[in-house]
Design goal:
mainly alpha, 7 helices, about 55% helix, globular
Length: about 180
Amino acid sequence: MEERRPRYERLPNYYGPDLAGTDFRAHPEKYRIGKGEQGVLMVEPYKSEILPHWRFRTPDVARESSEKIYVMFLAYLAQEDFVGADMARKFLQMGFTRSRRYANHKSGRKYARNPQLEPTAEAEKAARKKLLLPQEIDPVKAASAEIFREKYLRSLEHPDYQRLMQRHREQYEGV
């Protein structure tokens, strides 16, 4: 049977070392939308603009953070800056997923070890079940997750975001 690479290696790496130091505002043609939150901590100058506002410790902090990031999202849209808007959307998504992770697992770790390092699909499935840590539901983090989720879904469905995403794909990704 063919040995599979770990899952994290199967995703295309759009933001490798060759793009380190790239100013994506000046070079939007180099930006690839990617999957989910891919590239969220690598795409400058947006990472440096948005990251200082990204917090989810309590619902009040999450509300303030998600509101600030959503306002930035709208500002990027108003400037027709799809890359900035997509990065803000990714930070909102990451606020949801990370706070949900902490809501389910106090340590923030879902697994005792990384099951993606297992060499085969069967071993990976077995390892995931075996290494899954028990859930310890934290209602405070769950509330934070819901606040980010609402803003994330609003950004994802925004008509201007959809229009700019389609334009970016046609212009730079050949889709």
